[in-house]
Amino acid sequence: MKHKQKSKWILLFLTILVFCFALGKQQPVKASSLQISAEYNKTAYTNCLEIKISVNSSSELTMLKYDTARVAKSVYFTKYEQNGTEISKNEAGEYSFFIKQNGYLSVFAMNEDGEEALISFEVTNIDAEAPELALTVSENNNFYYVTANSKDNISKINSIQCVEGAYASAKDAIWSTAEKHYNTAAFTLKEGKYSFLVTDEVGNSYVTIQRLGENHEAEEEFRGVWIAYLDFKTTGYTEKEFRTHIETMFNEVCAMNMNAVVVHVRPFGDAMYDSDYFPWSRYVSGTQGKDPGFDPLKIMVDEAHKRGLEFHAWLNPYRITSNSTNVKDLSKDNPARIFRTDNKKSNDRNVLTYSGKLYYNPSVKEVQDLIINGIKEIVANYDVDGIHFDDYFYPALGKNYTQNFDAPEYELYKEDQINQNKEYMSIADWRRENVNTLIRNIYSAVKEINPDVKFGISPGGFMDALKADDKYYVDFETWLGHDGYIDYLCPQLYWSNDHSIYPFNDILNRFIDAAKNPDVKLYVGVGAYKAGIKTEGTDWHKNENVLRNMIRYSRNTNEVDGFILYSYKYLISKREHKAIINMLKEFK
Fold this sequence. Notes:
- With 588 residues, this protein is of the alpha/beta class.
- The protein contains 16 helices and 25 strands.
- An eight-stranded parallel beta barrel has the order 15-16-17-20-21-22-24-25, surrounded by five helices. The chain has a four-stranded antiparallel β-sheet with strand order 1-2-6-5, with no helix packed on it.
């Protein structure tokens, strides 16, 4: 009986086994038809490598991404949409992307059938390191003998070049005609300023600019205070009231042991002086366009010089309003109102409306000429020591930056370039060039009238935002690295060292690295207004030496030529704050 039961169980087991085998044959596991592979040059060094992706799939792809990481599971891409970068097709119709650093890469694909493919590989032949250049200088009979020695830790040196003048970018056209030398080069040069460029075989480059023989005596540290339009009342002044107000402010600045004032004279397309181009400012007369009956700018310049203070006239080039888009709120002689109401359609777009404000259009030559003429009259008619711009250039234009603001003017420029069979710039580079053109022409106009008048700019200190494609278009690297743009740059470094993105010391060092031209001064804009404020960590609120430490660190770099403090209003209202007191001790 037991033997029969055992046989029965064996028979049942064999039956199930056969059934499973048959079922397996009827429903085979289908191998995935989706396959991907990566092709790239694995031997030669390069500073930018194209990775081509071959795809073999029985259905359309629904996802093709890469990431600069070693990814083990596809869920990294499928579960988290923010991970990875989409791979698109190049001009040849191939899927490809470019990388500029060594390391692991992962590529993921998925098709309409739900099939997935994931590959990872390591790239080791990227050379993104700039070559090194050492200069040795000797003098004999008013000639300077410069020996340039170069090296590269990865690839070979391609060339060493030298040109006269300041040219901090390897993309400057002048390098294309400069003689090339290799590894070691010897130059016989006269007194002057020269730029040296070394380039390795994959295109990485390094530029240094050096003065030869010019004896520049050390200048006094620049110690300025910003006096903003907010430091003036909007109800107007008599001449006596205005003079008293200025004397009080300038006396306070002198008591701080500062040596310059940077005063708003055109905050909103207006003028604190008798202008042929802009209306009187409400901050002197109480009403825009109304003559106060005296010359505020002459009073300010005279009172500054009596006290040994430099006077820098502070202007906002493009800003017309801060909280209105109605041109009829402007005085009748305001050029912005005239442009919009004179029944000439050709100049309507000289003034643009954006984000509840009015701006002069930076791309229009008539606007640029207006701004330049307004500066020329200041330099010609008043004994100012400088012309100063702050951080109001293009506004932040957001994700639609290619379609808004002066985009119609860009399309006309692009169409014109195409009709002439010429290359055209991207809209971001075109906007940067609009600003650069204005800056170059202002510098030239100022120097033509009075070479001793300085032209300086104080952009925001958020360096990465300045270089973005959707805002500001402040090409500070060009200004810091070339002749003919500015005499000084004063980035507004309004963060303490415990700021997560822009710690003071680090961002200052980045600006120092960008300051290639030895004839362009680097000042630091100090945010004294933040003393005692609860923001970005604890330094501003609790550290009584937060401002003092900024001054000391800046000086210890031996690369900073001065400071401008923001602003008079806060230096006075917070005069008893320990951080302000400790900072001002540094200027005694």
